Automatic annotation (TrEMBL):
Keywords: ATP-binding, Cell shape, Cytoplasm, Nucleotide-binding. ATP binds at residues 13-15, 156-158, 204-207. Forms membrane-associated dynamic filaments that are essential for cell shape determination. Acts by regulating cell wall synthesis and cell elongation, and thus cell shape. A feedback loop between cell geometry and MreB localization may maintain elongated cell shape by targeting cell wall growth to regions of negative cell wall curvature. The keyword Nucleotide-binding applies. It is found in: Cytoplasm. PANTHER family: CELL SHAPE-DETERMINING PROTEIN MREB (PTHR42749). It comes from the Bacteria. GO terms for biological process: cell morphogenesis; regulation of cell shape. Belongs to the FtsA/MreB family. This is Cell shape-determining protein MreB. GO terms for molecular function: ATP binding. One of its GO terms (cellular component) is cytoplasm.
């Protein structure tokens, strides 16, 4: 009997996670590819490539092939998926069945690009599952019931806001603002207010260590930030505090909040009543931002909570769906 491995992939803008049937999550690496400009040869993928971000010589490019949740660079994405499949299956890629998560409002063109990239990487069957559904399955929300659940999956490139009932998305919105936008806002703030130029990696570290969505009085967190002085061009160390970072990320957070409010305003009244009872579920890597649940609760009036291990929520859902294909037939494209 020829046995096909079942694999789930959460192809994110910031991180890619791979789930192998009966083994669980086997891979969690940054969605970064380094390739040489001359012959477009892929030199490094994942962790190794992330180390190169902002540190490469002119002949090598380290870039993120996914932009805002969709494939921006098709060839590189395909090479990256092939690399991740090989690594997850320890080199034995025999036409596995692959399920991959896509943004809720992905267009037909975007869906076809994902399927084609997976097939080129060696997959036999490719199933697509919408990210909010995968996140809801991973958060152990009983999505097949006739009651409304609201999930907000805040990833690296997109924020998916969805109201789910009877295993389907009732109202959903993909906001192309998430973790990467917060990093960009932090870079801008340092440049404008403090004449300091910092890189992507530094901005992400600052966000993780002292990023805060809702500042509480009395507590101040600080950290040293190293970069280059905009005027003199010399290296410089600056001490940043959480208040300054909160001010920097305020605008992108507002855009996420507006998206949540928009979905709430389009939700049928019966389902709205369910959401008020159960609260808003937050998942995705950016849900780890300090106080983001309190921020959303404060401005929407609906209690919000972050699921445990929000970063693994989507991939757990994709894994459960591919292992139980029959029971999740409704959710799969």
């Amino acid at each position: 009997m020829f046995f096909r491995r079942k694999i789930g992939i959460d192809l994110g803008t910031a991180n890619t996670l791979v789930y192998v049937e009966n083994e669980g999550i086997v891979l969690n690496e940054p969605t970064v590819v380094a390739y040489s400009i001359e012959d477009k040869q892929v030199l490094a993928v994942g962790d190794d490539a992330r180390e190169m971000l902002g540190r490469t010589p002119g002949s090598i490019v380290a870039a993120r092939p996914m932009k805002e949740g969709v494939i921006a660079d098709y060839k590189t994405t395909s090479a990256m998926i092939a690399y991740f499949l090989k690594k997850a299956l320890k080199g034995r890629v025999f036409w596995p069945e692959v399920m991959i998560s896509i943004p809720g409002g992905a267009s037909q063109v975007e869906k076809r690009a994902v399927v084609a990239a997976c097939k080129q990487a060696g997959a036999s069957n490719v199933y697509l599952i919408e990210e909010p559904l995968a996140a809801a399955i991973g958060a152990k929300i009983p999505i097949s019931q006739a009651s409304g659940h609201m999930i907000v999956n805040i990833g690296g490139g997109t924020t998916e806001v969805a109201v789910i009932s009877l295993g389907q998305l009732v109202v959903y919105k993909t906001i192309r603002v998430a973790g990467t936008r917060l990093d960009e806002a932090i870079i801008q703030q340092f440049r404008k207010k403090h004449n300091l130029i910092i890189g992507e990696r530094t901005a992400e570290d600052v966000k993780i260590k002292i990023g805060n969505a809702l500042i509480e009085e009395g507590k101040v967190r600080k950290m040293e930030v190293k970069g280059r002085d905009f005027q003199t061009g010399l290296p410089k160390i600056f001490e940043a505090d959480d208040k300054m970072i909160a001010e920097a990320i305020n605008k992108p957070l507002k855009m996420i909040l507006e998206g949540i409010k928009e979905v709430l305003s389009q939700t049928p009244p019966e389902l709205s009543a369910d959401i008020v009872d159960k609260g808003i579920v937050l998942s995705g890597g950016t849900a780890l931002l300090t106080n983001i649940d309190r921020y959303i609760t404060y401005y929407t009036g609906v209690s919000s909570f972050v699921v445990e291990e929000p970063l693994f929520c989507v991939i757990r859902g994709v894994g459960m769906a591919i292992e139980n294909l029959e029971s999740f037939k409704e959710a799969i494209r």
